Amino acid sequence: MLHFTPLRLAVLAAGAALGAGTAHALETPDTGSEPMLLAQAEPVQLSRLVVKGQRFAPENSGFTANVLEQDTIRERHAGHIQELFREVPGMSVNGLGLGGVADNLVMRGFANGGHGGDIGMVIDGIPLNEAMSHADGYVDQNVIIPLEIEQMTVFKGPSSALYGNYNRGGTVAFESRKGGDYRELDLKTGSFGTVDLQGALGTPLGDGHEGNFAAQLYRSDGFREQSKTEQGTVAGRLGFQLGGGTTLAVSGRAHQGRWDSAGYITEEQNDSSGRRFDKDPRVQNDGGKKDFYTGRIDLSTPLSDDVSLLAYGYFTRQTFTRSFSRPVSATEWRQREEDYDRDVLGAGVSLNGLNAVAGHDLNWILGTEVVDESTRYHFRDGLDNRQDTALTTSGTLPYLDRDYGSKTFSVYGQAEWNLSPLFRPILGLRHDRMTGDCSAKPDEILGGTSCGDMPRYTHTSPKIGIRSAWSPMVETRVSYSEGFQLPPSDARYGPDGQALDPTVLRQIEAGLTLKPLDGLFIDTALFRIDTSNEVRSLGDGIYENFGKTRRQGIELDVSYAVTPRFDLSAALTWLDTKVLEHADTAIEGQAVPTVPRRTALLRGTYRFDNGWAADLALQRNSGYPVSPDGSKTLDGFTIADLTISYERKLWGQNQRFYLAINNLTNRDYSTNSFIMGGQQLYAPGAPRSFMVGVNLNL
To answer: Could you tell me which residues come within 8 angstroms of residue 517 by beta carbon, excluding any fewer than 6 positions away?
Structure first.
């Protein structure tokens, strides 16, 4: 049954107040602030604390990174973080429509972000990717409250030395609000019984101390039958100045989600507009639940006027259960259930410095981090409405009950040398060492899946970039960076400890930033990412390194304040992907499945007199091949979203009232498609919906 009891809500609130959840502090990149010295004549403000990566502002970097600031995030009134990704060139969302199950995110031609491990994601320094939870690198963005975010930075490709595994397509780093004095509430309600309440509070606590808190309650009946979702999240942070420039931050996060799922629809349903939102009769009582808690403590102290020592530790405690019905042949559907019980401990230390070398500023960071992650994994198939059947435990189907362990040790360094406006080099190097183990319980039936000790994997990834400012209107950047991907879990946890090499990614890119007119900003990036040493199965549990893929494209980010009242913006992407080497030679030369060749978001905002405004966003997705040989495809779509708002002064603050109409023309479309059991399945997109809301500053 889907509901939040008062006890559960009280536990969530207590988790935030007591700091039982995620953190702030030493890990996330601050992408907008200018470099500064840690030790100053006046006390360091905790809200400007220089943490891991904050010295490397994207606008000064040789690597491409896109930033969404807090004002933009607030104006979008997003209920879920993934709604913001379409604002970023090179990113798109292949939605699954499965309640609290993470959607597929696409970045630079890698299509398994979120639901898989192609995109790294951190919130205030705590990594959200899961080493063994449904898919290697699975990451759930539902644990983040949109209203709490100060800024979102998207590092493109494996370019940042601060992050290792899961950053094939790139890394998304979220930074929550820190410091300040604010009380903000965003409440909206509308179609399908949807209610979304978000609140954020920032308050000085005296003597330089400060507190930041946020909460969200979300519920919706969904636009399909059996699609009810309820989620609650709270987050809190306390910051203290201990004297002598030393600062301490303690923070926490708690999330609880419960949902039902109508599953996917068949090709026949997809082609019938009157049945697209029906549940297939073979879908059982699918759904899931998730409980998620993190906590973190950060300490910063200056060692000199130019160097600071940063230390942190964090934990994650999580349970996640999901039931899912799907076809296993042309005539048979089965329900499976996956259950994950996950614990993570992480700690790190780094030195940040800003020194003059040869008379020019050198920003640098040198750090190390260890992460110990364990997951209890339970898998059952052939269920009858989540209950065991004869198939479940007879040995006919896999019945998995095992413990996975993963340990990572990382050393990283990055430096940016401001030699001249025409030559600002940035160098990075990261070394990762990973080990792990798997042990099966006595009652497990392997069903062809491997379970054993993981051999030690190591990889060193160089990064080099150069930024040049040719004039106040023209800047360029060029870069080369490497990354890696571990073999699939069945290959790396094999009983014979197969010593496969990681897949290697090599990215080259060039970028151009233009500011030719007041109010006009143009940024474009050209990139190529080659992957080699991919892993293929030879059957009977034997794998080898074999396979190459190329992804290349152009990203364009444009914003133009045409007049003080009228703004235009565009986020455009052109992608070309190709399989260069594959076990099946018929697939060589084909495009990578589920990657759209073109995506676009065009937005126009007009502000009328007396506080009224209208915002129209047009989203275009070209569609993509679904099958590896390109014989099955998903059609593209264009949808429009309209927001009408009214702002007025009330209680001395600007208050905003709004009406949002999504899918304005009520277009029939699907957000995702794939092949299962020899059938093409679809995830239908939502019909036209209406939401009314208010954003209050109190």
So the answer is: none
R_g of the chain computed on alpha carbons: 25
Between the CA of residue 283 and those of 84, 188, 261, what are the distances in Å? Answer: 31, 31, 9
pLDDT band at 495 (very low <50, low <70, confident <90, very high): low
pLDDT at 639 over 70: yes
Angle at 287 between CA 283 and CA 290, to 5 degrees: 160
Residue 51, by phi and psi: left (phi above 0), alpha (psi -120 to 50) or beta? beta
Q: Is 559 exposed, middle or buried (0-12, 13-18, 19+ CB in 10 A)?
A: middle
Hey, where are the domains in the chain?
A: 6-697
How far is CA 355 from its chain centroid? Answer: 33
Secondary structure of residue 64 in the 3-state scheme: coil
Do residues 347 and 312 touch, judged by C-beta distance below 8 A?
Answer: yes
Mean pLDDT, residues 239-264? 96
Largest CA distance in the chain: 76
pTM of the model: 0.90
Distance CA 381, CA 334 (A): 7
User: What is the spatial order of strands in the sheet that 670-676 belongs to?
Assistant: 265-266, 679-684, 670-676
Query: Closest Cα partner for 213 from 183, 240, 237?
Result: 237
Question: Using CA atoms, how far apart are residues 663 and 470, in angstroms rounded to an integer?
Answer: 43
Residue 154 backbone zone (phi > 0: left; psi -120 to 50: alpha; other: beta)? beta
Across the range 356-376, mean pLDDT stands at: 94
Provide the CATH number for the domain formed by 6-697 in this structure.
Answer: 2.40.170.20
Checking if the pLDDT of 624 tops 90, the result is: yes
HSE toward the beta carbon, residue 411, CA cutoff 13 A? 5
